[in-house]
Amino acid sequence: MNRFVERVEPYFLSEDPFVQRYAIEMLEDTYLPEGDTFLTGLKAVDRGPVTEYSSPILPNLIYLPLNEEGLKEVVNRLDVMGKKDNNRLFYIQLITNASTELLTTYRKEVKQYVGEEQLQEVEKLPSLTIEELYMALADVMVYLDEHEFNQALYDHGKRIIKELVKKGGIESWEVQNGLQNKIDDEKFFGFEGIYNVYMAGEIQEESVVPQLVNLFKNEEEGDFLFEETANSLVKIGTDLVVREVENIALYGNTFFYTLDVLGRIKTKEAEKALLRLFDQADDPTAKTIIADNLCRHLSTDAIPRIEDLVETGYEDRLLCLEESLYVNCVMNGVQHPKLPEWRHLLEVMELEMLNEPPALIPQPVISDEKIGRNDPCPCGSGKKYKKCCL
Question: TM segments (predicted)?
Fold first, then answer.
C-alpha cells in the first residue's frame, strides 16, 4: 500500500465527522488507493453517521478502484437492495466503473446492472487485435467529434485504451507524435487529442510532460482537455511534473487545474512546490486553494502560514480553511491551542446548514457563462461544479 494512503485510510473510520469527510476526499483522484481501500470505505458506510454532522460516504467512494472482493460485495448489496433505495445508483456506477477483466469474469452477476448491450461491447475487447482496437477507438473519436457528447461512449474509449496498454499496443513515439500533431493543429484539438493526453497518463510517458503542461497556457481550450491533462500529469506524478507545473501554476485562469495537480501528487517535492507558490501568490482565490492543498498533503510546515492567512482573510466563499487546518492538525497529532475554537466553528456552520429552510438550499444553476468543471459551483454550495450542478 502507498505510504500516504496507509497514513490516511484509517481515518475513513474516524469518530470525528470532519476528519472522516476530509480524509476520504483527500485521496480523491490521486490514483494511489487500491481495492482494499474501497473495502475500508464500505466499513464506514455500514457503520453509518457518527454524528448529525456526518456527510454521506458512498458518493465519495466512486473514485476508488474495485478488486474482486469489492465487486462481489457490491453485487451482493444490490441483490438484496430495493429498487427505490437511494444508494442503488451509486452501487451500479461502481460496477460500471469496474475493470474489463472483472466485468467479463463476473458477467452473469453484473449483467442485470450493466446491461447486455454494454456488457457485450466490453467483453469483446480482450479478443480484439491491436489494429482492431485502434479502429474501434477511431469510431468512438469520430462520433464524439460529430455528435452531442456521450459520457458512456467517452468512458468506453478509455476502456479501449486500457486494453491497448495491456496488449502493449501504445508506443511512446505514438503518444509523442499524436500530441505534437494536435498541438500544431491550432484550430481543433478534438477528442483524438484528448485521448492522446489520456494515453500519456496510462503509460506514464514522462517525455511529453512539457507538452502536457503547456496545454494549460491555451485558455481557449475546453475543460475536458484541462481535466484530462491534469489527470494524466497526476498519473505520471514525477518530480519533473512537479517542476514543470510549478513554473506555470499561477498562469491565467487555469490555476484551478495546475494547483489541483500539485495537490493530488502526494510527494515531498509537490508539497515544497506548493509552499513556494503560497509565498508567491497574490490572488486570494489561488492562495486559498494552495492553502487547502497543503493541508491535503498533511503539511505541518504550512500550518503557521495558513493560520496567518485565516487571521488576515481568505476566500471563504470557496472553502473553509478552518476545517482544513483543524483536520491537518488532528491527523498530524498537533495539539494546536485553537483546535477547540476551529471545531466549534465547524459545528456552528454545520448546524446552520442543517437548519436552513428548504427555500435557501442552493438550486441547480444553468448558465451560458463558461464554468470550469473544477471551478466552484455558481450555486454557492462550495462544491466543485462537476460534483454539483453540472
Answer: none
